[in-house]
Design a protein that fits this description.
Layout: H1 13-23, H2 30-43, H3 45-64, H4 69-73, H5 79-91, H6 98-120, H7 131-143, H8 158-167, H9 175-188, H10 190-209, H11 213-217, H12 223-231, H13 240-256, H14 266-281, H15 290-293
Membrane topology: Multi-pass membrane protein
Transmembrane segments: 31-62, 74-92, 98-117, 129-149, 169-187, 192-209, 215-233, 240-258, 264-282
InterPro entries: Ammonium/urea_transptr, Urea_transporter
Length: 295
């Protein structure tokens, strides 16, 4: 499928890029993506350049290599670039090498997704989700200076904590970011939005019960649970699946917290893989293949 020429360009670049932002939330909706982009722009303007550059690098790499046009337009080759661009901009100090690094990481994430999609089509692999971002993110954090282990002190406001649980998906810790992201989800899929809010609420509540007060109010126990809930939110006939995904993501977070670098979205990815892998072993019927569903 590789080609050295630009072939079958995306009919709408703006839509493709915005879909990349919404695909972080496992949705395909440009307005949802616009809400996510606004959340970054208004609450962390120093990170928006990295997010856009990472998304664009992923999309351009996919186009340059002639990857499937529909998948490019759906944002499947951009969403990991969004996240890795955010993380690099957040974790590393500004220097002349930062933009080329984001471009290289965004392009590499696109190639990893492509290899994953090729093997996932016949059911050989589980969906990629944000695994490329996690792998590249761990490499980024290994290069960064060690960060303080303590969470930023914030007001003990449960509603703000609920919003932060959604904002932390994009590495944002302002309640406004979570409100904008929730608005985007409501536009894309109200049912999915409710599950995401429930996941954030359960994650924060468990953290409070476990004595992780500041982590709870910072939303650090909410974002993986919210993503896990989103991944299975279409299983309307089996609501226990998103609930189980939430529980698994929360249960895995302390174990992954033992790593020398932040776990990022690894608890979400592993929780979904465990559920899907178990379902395949037991031959349970499922309509679940999130990245292909939203392409």
């Amino acid at each position: 499928m590789y080609t050295k020429n630009f072939v079958n360009p995306c009919p709408d670049w703006a839509t493709a890029l915005l879909n990349g932002f919404s695909q972080v939330l496992l949705q395909r909706n440009p307005l949802c993506g616009l809400c996510c982009l606004l959340a970054i722009t208004l609450t962390a303007p120093d990170l928006v350049g990295g997010a856009l550059l990472g998304a664009l690098a992923g999309l351009l790499t996919a186009q340059r290599r002639g990857y499937d046009r529909a998948d490019r337009q759906a944002g499947l080759y951009s969403y990991n670039g969004v996240l890795i661009g955010l993380l690099i901009s957040h974790a590393l100090p500004w220097s002349a090498i930062l933009p080329p690094l984001i471009i290289a990481a965004g392009g590499l994430s696109s190639m990893l997704v492509h290899q994953w999609l090729k093997r996932a089509k016949p059911g050989q692999l589980l969906p990629a989700y944000t695994a490329p971002f996690v792998l590249l993110g761990w490499a980024t954090l290994a290069m960064a200076e060690p960060a303080s282990a303590s969470s930023t002190s914030v007001d003990a406001n449960p509603l703000f904590a609920l919003a932060r649980g959604l904002g932390q998906i994009f590495l944002l810790d302002q309640p406004l970011a979570g409100v904008l992201i929730a608005s985007g989800l409501l536009i894309a899929n109200r049912y999915a939005a409710l599950w995401a809010l429930l996941g954030s609420a359960i994650g924060g509540s468990v953290a409070l019960l476990g004595g992780e007060t500041q982590a709870a109010y910072n939303g650090l126990f909410g974002f993986n649970a919210a993503l896990a809930a989103l991944a299975f939110s279409q299983e309307r006939q089996r609501p226990w699946l998103p609930l189980l995904a939430i529980v698994l993501a929360i249960a895995l977070q302390p174990a992954l917290g033992l790593l020398p670098v932040a776990g990022l979205t690894a608890p979400f990815v592993l929780a979904c893989w465990l559920l899907l892998g178990t379902g395949r072993l037991l031959r349970l019927p499922t309509s679940h293949n999130r990245r292909r569903l939203h392409s």
